[in-house]
Write a structure and sequence with these properties.
CATH superfamily: Rhodanese-like domain
Shape: globular
CATH architecture: 3-Layer(aba) Sandwich
Strand content: 15-25%
Oligomer: single chain
CATH class: Alpha Beta
Distance between the termini: 39 Å
Helix content: 25-40%
Structural class: alpha/beta
Number of strands: 5
Order of helices and strands: EHEHEHEHEH
Length: 110
């Protein structure tokens, strides 16, 4: 049984943490067509439907922040990753939509 929990971070907070030197793998769980519209530089594309088959590529001790369109799908993935033993997991609340508003207006909203 794991005691890990899911942090809830805004896009601005995850960027601040990363800029201050904290390592966070940014995992984008949106569909490929969504990533064609808008993508956060440096994020790793891993659509939600592929997570089960690709979870072996994640290190359980590596901090991972999950991103989707608005934060709902990423929360589902975050909860599942905690169940799989990932130790440090954050959901990016508001997803890429809020990322565009809070962090980088050059990222398209859809």
């Amino acid at each position: 049984m794991t005691t890990a929990s899911i942090s809830r971070l805004t896009p601005a907070k995850i960027v601040k943490r990363r800029n201050s030197g904290e390592y966070w793998r940014l995992l984008d769980v949106r569909e490929p067509w969504e990533m064609e519209i808008a993508k956060v530089p440096g994020s790793v594309a891993m659509p939600m439907v592929e997570i089960r088959g690709r979870v072996g590529g994640l290190k359980h001790e590596e901090p991972v922040a999950i991103l989707c369109h608005t934060g709902a799908r990423s929360m589902v993935v975050a909860a599942w990753l905690v169940q799989q033993g990932c130790e440090t997991v954050a959901n990016i609340e508001g997803g890429i939509d809020d990322w565009s508003v809070e962090v980088d207006a050059a990222i398209a909203r859809y």
